[in-house]
């Protein structure tokens, strides 16, 4: 079964009209997982798949009368800045980029994350989040110019006390949806074509593999 097939099944399973994928980027221990957990605490969390490298949270919400299924992707255990696997970016519709206001290095690394994001997803909406403001509220008077320079929305948040967490994720979902609906962006069209082409080729080759590997246990 291909990726499109799985998405369609998801839409049926959750009785959703739309589906978007939102990814979270940032150094280790900036609070990516805590932010998602805080947001999802109040929400309906139908399913949570966890692996060593990746947590996928499924979340449904209603926007303008439409049921929207949101896939939140979160990585774990990135000890320091390291490139993400391309599949992490694959078909993402929005990105939440996080740094820790208490650790300057995590802010300094934002351009690295942003550069990699733009290599894979040149056009998707991205928001920048300064987390852990509860530890020292004075930091909200400091200026963090990276977001402004790149023209990205910026939020001061705290996963610990909940400040702005719902706002960030609701905004990100809205942006993801409008990106998905309005994106007529040329690169995206090209990527879609290439993906379909690639999937078809993979299907063909996996059909062949199935023929030769029948009876073998599934090792995936
Ligand atoms: N004071 C404070 N601590 C926080 C906040 N958010 C997260 N933390 C703490 O920061 C640490 C790291 O949080 P995680 O959510 O695990 O960080 P992460 O970005 O998911 O880290 P990786 O999974 O390694 O990439 C934990 O000890 C949290 O309790 C916050 O808003 N305020
Ligand atoms: Mg984490």
From TrEMBL:
Keywords, ordered alphabetically: GTP-binding, Nucleotide-binding
GO molecular function, one term: GTP binding
One Pfam family this sequence matches: Ras
Tagged with keyword Nucleotide-binding: yes
Region: Disordered, residue numbers: 198-220
Assigned GO CC terms: cilium
BP terms from Gene Ontology: cilium assembly; microtubule-based movement
Record has GTP-binding as a keyword: yes
Annotated InterPro entries: P-loop_NTPase, RabL2, Small_GTP-bd, Small_GTPase
SMART domains documented for this protein: RAB (SM00175), RAN (SM00176), RAS (SM00173), RHO (SM00174)
Family: Belongs to the small GTPase superfamily. Rab family.
Protein name, per record: RAB, member of RAS oncogene family-like 2
Naturally occurring in which organism (per UniProt): Cyprinus carpio carpio
